[in-house]
Amino acid sequence: MTLKVAIIQQSCTANIDANKQKLALNIIKAAKHGAQLVVLQELHNSLYFCQTENTDLFNLAEPIPGPSTEYYGALARECGIVLVTSLFERRAAGVYHNTAVVFEKDGSIAGKYRKMHIPDDPAYYEKFYFTPGDLGFHPIDTSVGRLGVQVCWDQWYPEGARLMALQGAELLIYPTAIGYESTDTPEEQERQREAWTTVQRGHAVANGIPVIAVNRTGYEPDPSGQTNGIQFWGSSFVCGPQGEFLYRAPIDEEVVTLIDIDMKRSENVRRWWPFLRDRRIEEFAPLQRRFID
Q1: Could you tell me if 211 and 200 are in contact, meaning their C-beta atoms sit under 8 angstroms apart?
Q2: Each residue's pLDDT tens digit, 184-221
Q3: Which residues are catalytic?
Q4: What distance in Å separates the CA atoms of residue 77 and residue 271, rounded to the nearest whole number?
Q5: Is the pTM of this model over 0.85?
Q6: Local structure of 59: helix, strand or coil
């Protein structure tokens, strides 16, 4: 089986309606070219607002279901696609999540995943905004396969990828918003981008399943002026179950592209490299400890 996947890498502005309209046009374009699964970047409705700590920005959050799920559900239904989105969820007053929502072809919500690992770095003050997820690492069943969806900072952790794979995930999917710190040297910036790419390709290899990572591109200033803002490094990619690149986007360009994924290849790769068979699970209990002194 060949699955036609579309990834949409784009820049965002402060105009939420314009961002959503641009996404809609790109989603429709991808569907007209035969996409069955469309994956969007992290927090695609707005600017990446976590560069500052501002309580007013909680007003960007929405309930799920809510206006954005109605909007993207209608698009999924109109286009007949499975759609992976990334939303700022208002669960209750004072409880907010960074949540991926997956829509089925009929526009219904197939499932959601709340970001588990929450970073806290200069210009990435996510712990201020997001409560850590409490839905666990569980794949979402759809008409195009079982999708192991996580979000951005989760992509650095092999444990989440493994748990998704052990529950039958056929794809690992990571909506992302990550970029350069302007004071780092060009060499350091490139090392960081390559590390981000390499660790995710490693998840594909270690689990024998393809990975889809969709990042934003473009420059977004820091409203506080305390940093030089973020230059998002794009580089969205799809790789196969041996980590082989099927597609890699440019750093600084918006992209709507389709990639064919051979969904039968993972079976053969796992026969050649039976990592799941050879795991010494009886020795892994110490992994539940923060650190082993």
Answers
A1: yes
A2: 999 999 999 999 999 999 999 999 999 999 999 999 99
A3: 42, 115, 152
A4: 37
A5: yes
A6: helix
